[in-house]
Amino acid sequence: MNESIRAREVRAVFPDGTTEVMPTAAALRRAQELGLDLVLVAPTAVPPVAKAVDFGHYTYEMKKKQHDAKKKQHVVQVKELKFRPNTDDHDYDFKKAHAIRFLQEGNRVKAVVQFRGREIAHADLGKKLLMRFAADLTTYGSVESQPRLEGRNAHILISPVKAAGKPVAGEKAPPAPPHSAS
Predict the structure, then answer these.
(1) Which residues pair with 159 in a beta bridge?
(2) How far apart are CA 55 and CA 15, in angstroms?
(3) Run of H or E residues at 66
(4) Which of 53, 56, 112, 147 could form a disulfide with 155 if both were Cys (CB 3.0 to 4.6 A apart)?
């Protein structure tokens, strides 16, 4: 800003909306006459763009924009669910419901089947369980990697589908349709 601008000439933007290419010294003089600072906003442009602004207010606005952008971003996490090859149906359904919730929140789900002792001899059961899990979640997520056996664990990675019926921030999820009494 101000005297530390090294370019010979700049495209100066002033508060009244005028823009002109002028020597840096002339732009700096005009900005100081207005009681403002000359700040380089696009140093890679040809010629570089400098704006006449109140530097304290400018930095405040930039920090405010960064804070708002950070507040709106969502960090995608990988949620892990662990199974055993002989996981009961109720436990499976319970974990599937958690996976659906994780996918609706926009997180990825990693389902892991752990084999203990001689269970590793039946790795096909674990892969079948993972394929069933992936098939049950097709409306909420897509399979990112096929079931893979690594050591004593088999795992699969499922990422959320963009239009998975995610509730918008501040809204509730749509109610479930009523059951018909037959």
Answers:
(1) 142
(2) 13
(3) helix 55-72
(4) 112
Across 108-126, average pLDDT: 90
- Model pLDDT, residue 69: 84
Look at residue 151 and tell me whether its pLDDT is greater than 90.
no
CATH classification of 78-160, choosing from 3.30.70.270, 3.40.50.2300, 3.40.50.300, 3.30.110.10? Answer: 3.30.110.10
Helix (H) or strand (E) holding 95: helix 89-104
Domain 2-54, second-level architecture: Roll (3.10)
Say which amino acid occupies 54: D
- Token duo for residue 132: 């069933």
What DSSP string runs through 113-148? EE--GGGGGGHHHHHHHHHHHHHHTTTTEEEEEEEE
Strand order in the sheet with 153-160: 78-83, 108-114, 153-160, 141-150
Neighbours of 154 (CB within 10 A): 24
Residue 120 CA: distances (Å) to CA of 107, 115, 156: 29, 5, 17
Residue 82 has phi, psi (to 5 degrees) of -110, 135
Which of the pair, 73 or 173, is modelled with greater confidence? 73
Question: In percent, how much of the chain has pLDDT > 90?
Answer: 26
